[in-house]
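Need residues for this backbone.
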């Protein structure tokens, strides 16, 4: 069985990267993640977790928006004489016999 893979749709940065601005203008950049991701921060000319990020155009900026896949806890319990398997306690093939 192959592992589950998720190929995200494109994340969005607003306004778009090809926009132009006048010197001294304040710009609000907002990172809009795909529904299965969360925004984690900006890197490059500015290091920040602000979203939206407010910058004043006084030079050329190079920014990268970072996203990570959402994660959720899974709580499993057993009733009766069962065994639960986890990454910490994988099933040994000989134990299954």
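Answer:
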């Amino acid at each position: 069985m192959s592992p589950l893979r998720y190929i995200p749709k494109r994340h969005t940065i607003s306004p778009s990267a090809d926009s132009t601005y006048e010197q001294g203008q304040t710009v609000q950049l907002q990172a809009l993640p795909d529904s299965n991701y969360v925004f984690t921060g900006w890197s490059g000319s500015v290091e920040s977790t602000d979203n939206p990020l407010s910058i004043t155009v006084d030079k050329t900026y190079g920014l990268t928006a970072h996203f990570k896949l959402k994660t959720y806890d899974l709580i499993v319990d057993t009733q009766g004489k069962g065994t639960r398997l986890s990454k910490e306690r994988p099933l040994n093939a000989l134990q299954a016999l």
